[in-house]
Design a protein that fits this description.
binds guanosine-5'-triphosphate; binds magnesium ion; seven-stranded mixed β-sheet
């Protein structure tokens, strides 16, 4: 994917505030502080398009970013961090379930897990929702720069088992080394293309032929 432009569109908590239009959308989900915003920044070659933070729970809204004026990347609020206020925690579940079940533009969700941790209950819940709403998942294992080769192999087995996916389904990533960036784009591209089949062409498509 060649990223020519990327800009913030808006934040939302409920459908009335989601961006209008039918651009296909890929969302990024995972635990607080797992590295969602960092992954989006690396994908679009920007240091700070999406705000990153060492304070977990920083992103509490659904943030929409338009890329190349042809699709949208969505940074979803993280989950599972003990210090996040209770009201924020309570709001997360309906906000997320509404987005995943109602957003017609949604073509896939990148679920991000930390190479050093065993996936938590909310990660499993997320995969279950995706199955229930027929949203294809891309599972990214991030912060790979933090572990040795042996540790990576050990954790890969644990993560795949806990999530109930094949090891080959996992994409390995590091925001530091940028390992895995092209592979993740390839998987995103595939989902954006599947979504494009059967949809109407833009109004000016084929204008030269007519
Ligand atoms: N070493 C290393 N650090 C990373 C990597 N990805 C993210 N981080 C760090 O992890 C912290 C959290 O990153 P964010 O991208 O803000 O995480 P987030 O999932 O968006 O967090 P919330 O929005 O709070 O849910 C930051 O200090 C990042 O610099 C990575 O691949 N390797
Ligand atoms: Mg974030």
């Amino acid at each position: 994917m060649i990223v020519k432009s990327a800009h913030f569109v808006k934040s939302a908590t409920r459908p009335a505030h989601y961006p209008e239009g039918d651009l296909p959308e890929i969302a990024f989900a995972g635990r607080s502080n797992v590295g969602k915003s960092s992954l989006v920044n690396v994908l679009v070659n920007r240091k700070n398009l999406v705000r990153t933070s060492s304070t977990p729970g920083r992103t509490q809204l659904i943030n929409f970013f338009q890329v190349n004026d042809c699709f949208t990347l969505v940074d979803l609020p993280g989950y599972g961090y003990a210090k996040v206020p209770l009201e924020v925690k309570k709001a997360w579940r309906p906000m997320m379930e509404t987005y995943l079940s109602k957003r017609r533009n949604l073509r896939g969700v990148v679920l991000i897990v930390d190479i050093r941790r065993t996936p938590v209950e909310e990660d499993l819940q997320m995969l279950e929702w995706l199955r229930a709403y027929s949203v294809p998942p891309i599972v990214v294992v991030t912060k790979c720069d933090k572990v040795s080769k042996n540790e990576r192999a050990r954790q890969t087995a644990i993560i795949a088992e806990r999530l109930g996916v094949e090891k080959s389904e996992l994409s390995f990533f590091s925001a530091l080394s940028k390992e895995g960036k092209d592979g993740i784009w390839a998987r995103i591209d595939a989902l954006l293309e599947v979504g494009a089949e059967g949809t109407e062409q833009p109004e000016n498509a084929g204008i030269e032929a007519s």
